[in-house]
C-alpha cells in the first residue's frame, strides 16, 4: 500500500472549514453564531462549512443552546465516535497497545508480548496483529481506524520517524516503522520518542497542565521530552532532549553507542543499574525488578539507587537552569523507586538557581502506567484531525460522484 500523506504542523486559512473544525473540536466555539462572531464571516458562509463537517460525520449538531436574543441555536460538537486511532508504546521489556476515540478517550489499553530483540520487521507484524485483535475484541470496525502512533525508547528522526542509533537495540538502527506498516495499511503511521509521548500526555491530560515542561522517562534508558510554549520541541532533526549522554561521575556498567566515557545512561539508567546489580550477584532483569529490590530496603541496592539519582539530578539541574520549566515530570518504570526519586529531587533542588527553583514542580507522571499510549493517541489525533487534512476530506466529499444526496439542509428561520 502507499504511505499516507502527512499534515503535521501544516497551514490552514482562518475561517476555512479546517479552522472551523479546529474551533469546534477545541471547544472554543460551539454554535454557528459563536463561529460567525469569532471568525467574522457571514453566517451563511459559516453554515455551508459546518454542513460539510456534519455530512463528513465529524461534527454533530444537537440539543438546544440558548443564544443571545432568546433565539434557539443548536450546539455543535465533535462526533468522537466517528472513528478511532491506534496507540502503541514499545519499551525494552513491555509493550502496550491501545485505542482511543476522536475525543482522546482511551477505549482500551492492553499489555502485549512483543519481543523487540527480534528486530523491527517482526515487531511491526506483531504490533499490527495486536492492534487488530484489540479492535476486534472491542467490536470496532477496522475501516474506522484513522491512524496509528508508535512510541519507541530511541532517538527518532523528525519528521521521517526513522530510528537513529538506539542505545540498546542495535537491530533497530535505521528502522522505518511507517514503511513497514505501509505493507498492512494506508492510514497515517507516526513514530515518536517515548519521552516526547509522556510530555504530550501530561500536557493534554487536564488539570494544571504546563506550557513549559520537561518529561523524564526513567526506564531501561533515560529520555527527556520537552514542551516549550505549549508545543512539543523536537529540535532541528528530532534529537532534542537526548540528555543521557553527558559525562557524569561514576563508572559505566554497560556500553553505550554514544562513545562518551561514563555517560549518564551507561552509569545511571535502569539498564546500567541492572548490570551493576548483576556484577554484585543480584538477579534483577528489568527496571521493575530493580525497583522491587530497592523497596525491600537492601542497603547496597538503596545505595546504588541513591547514587544513580544523584547523577540524574545533576544532569537535570543543568538543563532545568537552562530551560526554566514549570514542571519536571518523572515517568517510566524507575520513577516508582522512592530512593532514586528522592536523590534526584535533592540534587536538582540543591543545584538549581533560586529563580528557577522557586516555581519548579517536580512530580510523578499523572498516569505513569500508560502515559506512553495516551501520548501516542494525542499525537496521532493531531495528525488525523489536522485542519488541513479535514479540508482535504471535505474537498474529496464535495468532488465525490456518489455524493448525490438531495440538499436536505433545513432553512433556518432568520
Ligand atoms: Zn551514552
Automatic annotation (TrEMBL):
Species this chain originates from: Agreia bicolorata
InterPro entries: ATPase_NBD, ROK, WH-like_DNA-bd_sf, WH_DNA-bd_sf
Top-level taxon of the source organism: Bacteria
Pfam families named in the record: ROK
Biased composition range(s): Low complexity: 402-414
The protein's name: Sugar kinase of the NBD/HSP70 family, may contain an N-terminal HTH domain
SUPFAM superfamilies: Actin-like ATPase domain, Winged helix' DNA-binding domain
Region feature Disordered, mapped onto this chain: 393-414
Family: Belongs to the ROK (NagC/XylR) family.
